[in-house]
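ok so i was messing around last nite and threw this chain in just to see what happens. nothing serious, just curious
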Amino acid sequence: MKVFDLALLLLLGAIWGGSYPFLRVASPEFGPIPLIGVRIAVAAICAVGVLSVRGGFAPVRRHFGALSAVGAINSAIPFCLFAYATLSISAGFAAVLNATVPLFGAVLGALCFGERLAPLRAFGLLIGFAGVVALVGHKLSFGAPSLAIAAGFSAAFLYALAAHLTKRWLHGVEPLAITVGSLLGSCVLLAVPALLTWPTEMPSARAWVAALVLGVLSTTVAYLLYFHLIRSVGATRSMIVTYLIPAFALFWGALFLGEPIGLDVVLGAGVILLGTGLVARGTSKAAR
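result:
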């Protein structure tokens, strides 16, 4: 993996690591589906604006069916699932559930997409997941409702599936076109459910700011980075960003909320980065 792609991976982890506190702020006031409806609508407006400046709507029209499917699997449904999960579980716990994406991705790749997982990459996946558990395991509350946990695991599975489908269905399509098409498809899917479940009381300004940041930074900007990485380094390597998210989530908590970072956090983050590096360096060849 090139240095530039590694830098993008770190940046994406930092952006998505900051999304969980925003979810916890806004989801109780909006409700999961309306919040994600706002998030995706804002992101779609931003992405369409960028694409309008650059041109290139032809790929969106040509691949809109596949883009809509990817949008549902990678945005609309898992976003709602995690927004629901953060109503009941901590941001750290949600990040651990999200960190299972590479594991789901590796299994799906081997079973359904003809990928052979090289031993070094498999070892890196295990080390990375062990680092996630070591990093936030002592902060978790395992009394969290089982439905919230199931929602988080389901979202992680959908993220992994979407990464593989994006690589297969949309190979060669520009990341910006993928972002715009998938977000527009998600808007269509969520419009009616979001309106039907809209809160009776208007959310506070604080919740609106969180929703807007989720839309602009955590969705539009993050998706441009993510789809670029899928095209550049592949689906499985792109999914290792989920190992970085818990570390960054704790870092933002310490920076903005004054939460302490102990030696265990530093060591856990180091293990995560070690696993990430092994996955990035490992090689994999298609079985077919």
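not much to say yet. Residues 205-233 form the longest helix (29 residues).
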